[in-house]
Design a protein that fits this description.
477 residues, mainly alpha, two-stranded antiparallel sheet, 19 helices, 2 strands, 57% helix
Length: 477
């Protein structure tokens, strides 16, 4: 029979491997059917580039730089049109960028400079969650604030307050001296209790993770630079008083009773003494207290509705809620700028707000017109204060980016709550800018002017006609 030359080919792989003098060398593949196998087959794990996308927790989205393909997809879907200048990817690694309702990028501050340093801020990961029990919240807050109080006396943070408010008279110098002795005594007492192990060892104030450079472990230079610039902002009490006098002389005086005016003058005097040349702290105190009138008005209206006394104020209650929502964003802006860092400022603002709430509840029950009149006085004073502040710090404010919460509020696609608190429909719709910190404070000043108009309108019994007309108009979304 014919001799057949042996062939290396075989009908299956096993036969082929047996027929070869040496098995075929198979080059290791980096591909694997699953991630675990892929990681085992690689000599080194694949380095994954950190993603710059930030999880969207509440519209509008806070979005970082996106690849061109994804941007084109969004253009086709009509979500956002990236027509403006796009930020460089290197700039986006540490600082967030907000995409406004026009699809334009708004650069915002890289860090949060407040006491909580990002914990519990609006439009962040924890925003919108359900709180735990009041007992747990109270205990945790007591524990944290006790440590903050101990740091305030041990580090003598009150020296910063006295440095910004040097005493001018002999009684003032005596009070400052007495206050310094009290702080020294409390610091010595705290050290004694710590030595006796009745109090835990006091640790330094922790910084938020986003302000620490991961390479060096030190505070980022950008964070320190912006904080120093914020400390350079100034506000003159005398200039504010002169601006208020000019307004009242030119026909903008708020008419009120002598006792309401006396209470108003006392509040202004306290602000001038405690927050002299500390504008951000002063604004934070004002915004903390400024929410209370609307809380008190809504509480009283709810009470009347529950008792069946008055059920015609649903639209008015909505306006007051929109006003409180506006003041809440003002407050969050001031917190992001560091207005609540000192324990003394928080203690004074929180307790003043609680007392102010109950005073206004009693005043509203007795006379809603007087309650609105007193709020009009304070809002007019806020307009003068913010107006003087933006005029005297314009150049410095324009060199700083806005906080994230400001961009979210003023440049978001949904302007429903923004329009609701503005009862003066004849002035048209506002479209505020938010390119820098100067624009933010100009917007806040204009918001306070709208609050003045609303509080004045609420003293007029014919306000219901305007409310009905405003309700029938199409709202912006």
């Amino acid at each position: 029979p014919r001799q057949v030359k042996p062939s290396l080919r075989a009908p299956n792989k096993d036969a082929a491997m047996r027929s070869r003098p040496f098995p075929r060398q198979v080059k290791p593949s980096l591909r694997a059917p699953n991630k675990d196998a892929a990681m085992r087959s690689r000599p080194f794990p694949r380095q994954v580039k950190p993603s710059l996308r930030i999880r969207q927790t509440r519209p509008p989205a806070l979005r970082a730089y996106k690849p061109a393909v994804e941007q084109q997809k969004q253009k086709r879907e009509g979500l956002y049109a990236y027509d403006g200048d796009q930020p460089e990817e290197q700039d986006m690694k540490d600082c967030p960028v907000f995409v406004d309702r026009k699809g334009e990028f708004v650069r915002v501050m890289c860090s949060d400079y407040g006491y909580r340093s990002g914990v519990g801020r609006m439009y962040q990961s924890a925003d919108g969650t359900i709180p735990v029990s009041g007992f747990e919240l109270a205990w945790e807050n007591f524990r944290v604030e006790l440590a903050s109080l101990r740091r305030s006396v041990r580090g003598d943070e009150y020296a910063r307050v006295s440095g910004a408010n040097p005493p001018q008279s002999l009684p003032g110098k005596a009070l400052y001296k007495l206050g310094g002795l009290v702080v020294q005594g409390l610091a010595a007492l705290d050290q004694s209790l710590e030595a006796a192990k009745l109090l835990p060892k006091l640790e330094a104030t922790p910084e938020a993770p986003d302000v620490i450079d991961p390479d060096t472990g030190e505070v980022k230079s950008e964070f320190s630079r912006v904080r120093l610039m914020l400390q350079q902002l100034t506000l003159s009490n005398k200039a504010v008083s002169e601006r208020e006098h000019i307004r009242e002389s030119s026909g903008g005086k708020v008419e009120t009773t002598w006792y309401i005016r006396l209470l108003y003058d006392a509040v202004c005097l306290m602000l001038d003494l405690v927050y002299n040349n500390r504008p951000i702290q002063r604004f934070w105190f004002l915004e903390t207290v400024a929410r209370m009138p609307y809380f008190s008005y809504i509480s009283c209206i709810h009470l009347y509705e529950t008792l069946g006394w008055w059920r015609a104020a649903a639209e008015l209650r909505k306006i007051h809620f929109a006003e409180e929502w506006n003041e809440l964003h003002h407050l969050q802006i001031m917190e992001a700028l560091g207005g609540d860092r000192l324990w003394f400022d928080r203690f004074l603002a929180y307790h003043s707000a609680i007392a102010y709430y109950w005073v206004l509840v009693g005043l509203y029950i007795c006379s809603p017109k007087l309650a609105y009149n007193f709020s009009e006085l304070l809002e007019a004073h806020a307009v003068d204060t913010y107006g003087e502040f933006v005029s005297s710090n314009e150049e410095l404010l324009k060199s700083l980016e806005p906080p994230l919460v400001a961009a979210q509020y003023y440049r978001s696609p949904d302007l429903y709550m923004f329009d609701e608190f503005q009862t003066d429909i004849s002035s048209g719709k506002r479209n505020p800018k938010c390119d820098n910190l100067y624009d933010v404070f100009v917007n806040i000043r204009d918001d306070e002017a709208e609050h003045v108009k609303t509080m004045n309108a609420c003293q007029d019994s014919e306000i219901m006609d305007e409310i009905v007309e405003r309700r029938e108009k199409t709202r912006r979304v």
